[in-house]
Write a structure and sequence with these properties.
With about 400 residues, the chain is α+β, with helices and mostly antiparallel strands. It has 14 helices and 11 strands. It has 3 domains: about 70 residues; about 80 residues, 2-Layer Sandwich (Phosphorylase Kinase, domain 1), CATH 3.30.200; about 190 residues, Transferase(Phosphotransferase) domain 1 (Transferase(Phosphotransferase), domain 1), CATH 1.10.510.10.
């Protein structure tokens, strides 16, 4: 008799197994936890519960599943329709790509049907023109939260060529927040787009471009760490603009920035920092075991930059973009290197070793210093910037 095919795990189940999303607890399991009983001993007591008593555990379980769905969506894990207990609600667009010309942000007017540029961590990116000079600028706009006020406050502390200057802003703080009120900030518009856009439309970076990318972003991150004691928290090709005419790079999107050391009341559950393929091994370990406060340092930005430079050189991410596959590889890398010398036979260690040959020779030594899997041996952006005279 032919055995039925084994049912494949869903994306959510894989994410739970990889530690990316916390497992939701069923009503009976909650009951066992509260009574501190094994399932076998708790079964008869569960059957004896009244309807009202059982409803409390059902409500707590539904809340747990709701929190799990929110964490999964935040982590980028796509849920199957059968996994949703509530019908999905399409989010209202921040501003339509076909925005009318009469929408204004101070002295800046939205560029009509050509306005849509992209989406940042906490807001839409729009093309606007100045009402007097008619020059084109970029506006980051949000009507859903007050996170732009934190980004604006951080940008005002920075004075480095790798950060776009803040030309105008109108933001609300957490204390002033009014639902529906729009916050915005205006910056120069870089028409060429991001490093990822260049890779998709033109091709891989040659040695000269890799050197410019490494030097400029490294100097910018070192300035950020020194001036504000913040990490960027989401260094990747999408968050670095690249102008091929001037060979210039600009770091954008501070939606995941954190001040170090992390505060005592920092909440580990649901913490968002770095996209999966660009997380350092110790960050993956900290997030999987809810001990991120122990492992998160400024050196995580250096690792993310190394992964970005490798992708610029090869057009492909070194570690898989899916949450569970990236987590699995990075946790394997962490375990292979801690404690003691790296296990050179581990797949992830071999992958990292081979990757160093794929970047340009001009940046290889810096890349190896940033892509060191052992946290204590990895060089920070400030250390490398000082060693190479980058400012």
């Amino acid at each position: 008799m032919k055995r039925p095919a084994k049912r494949q795990a869903t994306q959510l189940q894989r994410a739970v197994a990889a530690g990316v999303v916390k497992k939701a607890v069923k009503p009976f399991a909650l009951f066992c936890q509260q009574r501190r009983l094994s399932p076998r001993k708790a079964a008869s007591a569960w059957r004896d519960l009244g309807d009202n008593e059982r409803k409390e555990f059902l409500a707590a379980s539904r809340l747990g599943f709701s929190n799990q769905r929110q964490a999964a969506e935040k982590a980028g894990v796509r849920l199957r329709n059968s996994q949703r207990t509530d019908p999905p609600v399409a989010p209202e667009p921040l501003l339509s790509d076909r925005a009318p010309d009469d929408i204004t942000f101070g002295d800046y007017i939205v560029c009509g049907s050509q306005a849509g540029v992209g989406q940042g961590g906490y807001g839409g990116i729009m093309k606007v023109r100045h009402r007097v000079s008619h020059r084109i600028y970029a506006a980051k706009v949000s009507n859903t939260n007050f996170h732009l006020s934190e980004e604006v406050a951080l940008l005002k502390q920075l004075a480095h060529e790798t950060f776009l200057p803040l030309l105008a802003e109108s933001v609300v703080t957490e204390d002033e927040f009014v639902p529906g009120q729009i916050s915005f900030m205006i910056m120069p518009y870089v028409a060429a787009g991001s490093v990822l856009h260049y890779l998709h439309n033109v091709g891989a970076f040659d040695a000269e471009k890799q050197l410019a990318l490494t030097h400029q972003v490294l100097a910018g991150l070192a300035h950020l760490h020194r001036r504000t004691e913040h990490i960027h928290g989401d260094v990747k090709p999408q968050n670095i603009l690249y102008d091929p005419l001037t060979n210039s790079c600009f770091i954008i999107d501070f939606g995941m920035t954190y001040r170090l050391p992390l505060a005592e009341d920092f909440v580990e559950d649901g913490a968002g920092v770095y996209t999966y393929a660009y997380r350092a091994p110790e960050v993956a370990k900290g997030m999987s075991e809810k001990i991120l406060k122990k492992f998160l340092t400024v050196k995580a930005d250096a690792w993310a930059l190394a992964m970005t430079v490798h992708q610029a050189a090869t057009k492909k991410a070194l570690f898989h973009m899916s949450p569970w596959k990236a987590a699995e590889s990075l946790l394997e890398l962490f375990d292979a290197c801690n404690p003691g010398p790296p296990d050179k036979k581990a797949r992830s260690v071999l992958r990292l070793s081979n990757a160093s040959r794929e970047v340009a020779e001009e940046v290889r030594l810096m890349w190896l210093a940033m892509a060191e899997p052992v946290l204590q041996k990895r060089r920070s952006c400030q250390q490398l910037a000082e060693e190479h005279g980058l400012r």
